[in-house]
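[job 4471] stage=fold_predict status=RUNNING
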Amino acid sequence: MSLPTRHTLARMFGGLALLTLFLGLGIAPLLGGIGVFGWQVLHWLSEGEWVPRSVLHFMIWADYKRAWAENPTAWFGLWKLLNWLPLSVTGILYGATMSAIFASAARGKPEVHEAER
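[job 4471] inference complete, writing structure tokens
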């Protein structure tokens, strides 16, 4: 039994797998970052106070490594970096980067010819 080739995978899944990755890893963080920034701007316009949200705030909200995020016992530099990084900017940059990578991969995917089917 041999492993499937790139052409076989493209034939089996078409663009569905690429589209799923694109939406999950590219568009969702991009829209999330824009949404967080929009919420911050609306709050600032209505209340006159900027509410900072860092990647660390998101980790605590998502209950991901919450104990470390609230009270780090190691990796203090990483904790400071995650506390400093704005969630909106991080989401937008990550989402745009992943979207560009997947768009590039979609343009370069192999063509499936009729003879190969």
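[job 4471] summary: The first helix runs from residue 6 to 13.
[job 4471] exit 0
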